[in-house]
């Protein structure tokens, strides 16, 4: 496979790079020197500057997504194009880019043909094995890659590559059936949730945010929520139902609240990933005609729109910038629920 060979063209002749490897699930993260990958004719090689930690990385680290170790995680990468394959159009060396972790799409199936490349059965999941976003270099597929607006710093752009585009796509899905200016419940104000509140506010919604942590409710207010409610202290009779409810927490009680907080004929937009199957009272859903609508990240078009909207409305995720050798601390802190917003790792400090 091309990703295991090296070239001397890159990085002034350097052939290897540091990659942060999860050696075993829930185990130590090691910095290993591995070959710099080589782009094929349709790929970009990107020298990463910043990469942030997402709850999906935590799920993979904990083994909830199956046996993956040894693996380099990270799927919110930003960097500079240092090499382009001979068939690449639209990108050049020096472009500041961010990308989603999908490569090798077929461009011929009904998903690819409708610009939903992330659902292509031929794609490689993640940035593959040891070549994730917590490496100094990564390969990017132009169909998953966008240019980062100049006004957005690399550190602030990184969380938008997964959290941002997911939040944007969730609120865009709300907007398909519910106009701006109307009330919207958002449940869970973590890394994705606080950005979702910001996009909802930018699209004109009047947000009520729910969480079980008071500091996250404060964050929701800072990002424009009109009401912020601790769901641990909430009686069912106090819930004000909205036409759509966005559930961003993966906890089962968050989904239970999501259904309760949704009006008849309404939709629960499912973003949060639970650790196992959820049960719903199907009779309750049927009798009220409430639908569950899942959201999986977003298209390249969504990512581009999400970044341009962030530039236009000055949407800035809450971040803490860390050194790459502090990565393991981030995984542990995320697992304990101690991270507010996003931890962003830089490769140059
Ligand atoms: Zn395809
Ligand atoms: Zn993610």
UniProtKB/TrEMBL annotation:
Q: Name one GO molecular function term.
A: zinc ion binding
* GO CC term (a single one): cytoplasm
Read off the InterPro entries from this record.
ADH-like_C, ADH-like_N, ADH_Zn_CS, ER, GroES-like_sf, NAD(P)-bd_dom_sf
SUPFAM superfamilies from the entry?
GroES-like (SSF50129), NAD(P)-binding Rossmann-fold domains (SSF51735)
Please tell me whether the keyword Transit peptide is annotated for this protein.
no
- Give cofactor(s), names only: Zn(2+)
Keyword check for Zinc, yes or no. yes
Domain annotation Enoyl reductase (ER): ranges: 27-345
One short Pfam family name for this protein?
ADH_zinc_N
UniProt keywords (A-Z) are:
Metal-binding, Oxidoreductase, Zinc
Question: Which protein family is it in?
Answer: Belongs to the zinc-containing alcohol dehydrogenase family.
This protein is called Alcohol dehydrogenase
> Can you name the source organism?
Lepidopterella palustris CBS 459.81
């Amino acid at each position: 496979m091309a990703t295991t060979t090296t070239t001397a063209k890159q990085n002034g002749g350097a052939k290897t790079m540091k990659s942060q490897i999860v050696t075993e699930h829930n185990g130590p993260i090691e910095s290993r020197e591995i070959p710099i990958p080589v782009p094929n004719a349709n790929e970009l090689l990107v020298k990463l500057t910043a990469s942030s930690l997402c709850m999906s990385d935590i799920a993979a680290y904990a083994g909830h997504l199956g046996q993956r170790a040894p693996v380099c995680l990270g799927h919110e990468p930003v960097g500079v194009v240092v090499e382009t394959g001979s068939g690449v159009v639209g990108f050049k060396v020096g472009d500041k880019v961010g990308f989603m972790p999908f490569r090798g799409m077929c461009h011929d199936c009904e998903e690819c043909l409708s610009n939903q490349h992330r659902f292509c059965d031929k794609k490689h999941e993640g940035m593959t094995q040891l070549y994730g976003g917590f490496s100094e270099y990564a390969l990017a597929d132009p169909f998953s890659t966008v240019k980062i607006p100049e006004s957005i710093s690399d550190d602030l752009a990184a969380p938008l590559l997964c959290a941002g585009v997911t939040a944007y796509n969730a609120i865009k899905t709300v907007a398909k059936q519910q106009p701006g200016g109307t009330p919207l419940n958002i449940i869970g104000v973590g890394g994705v949730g606080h950005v979702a509140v910001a996009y909802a506010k930018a699209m004109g919604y009047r947000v009520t945010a729910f969480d079980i942590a008071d500091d996250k409710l404060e964050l929701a207010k800072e990002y424009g929520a009109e009401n912020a409610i601790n769901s641990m202290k909430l009686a069912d009779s106090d819930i004000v139902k909205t036409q759509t409810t966005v559930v961003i927490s993966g906890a089962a009680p968050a989904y239970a609240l999501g259904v309760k907080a949704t009006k008849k004929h309404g939709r629960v937009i499912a973003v949060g990933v639970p650790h196992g199957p959820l049960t719903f009272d199907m009779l309750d859903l049927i009798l009220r005609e409430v639908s569950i609508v899942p959201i999986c990240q977003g298209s390249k078009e969504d990512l581009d729109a999400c970044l341009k909207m962030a530039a236009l409305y000055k949407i800035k995720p809450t971040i803490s910038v860390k050194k790459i050798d502090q990565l393991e601390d981030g995984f542990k802190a995320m697992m304990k629920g101690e991270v507010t917003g996003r931890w962003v790792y830089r490769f140059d400090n």
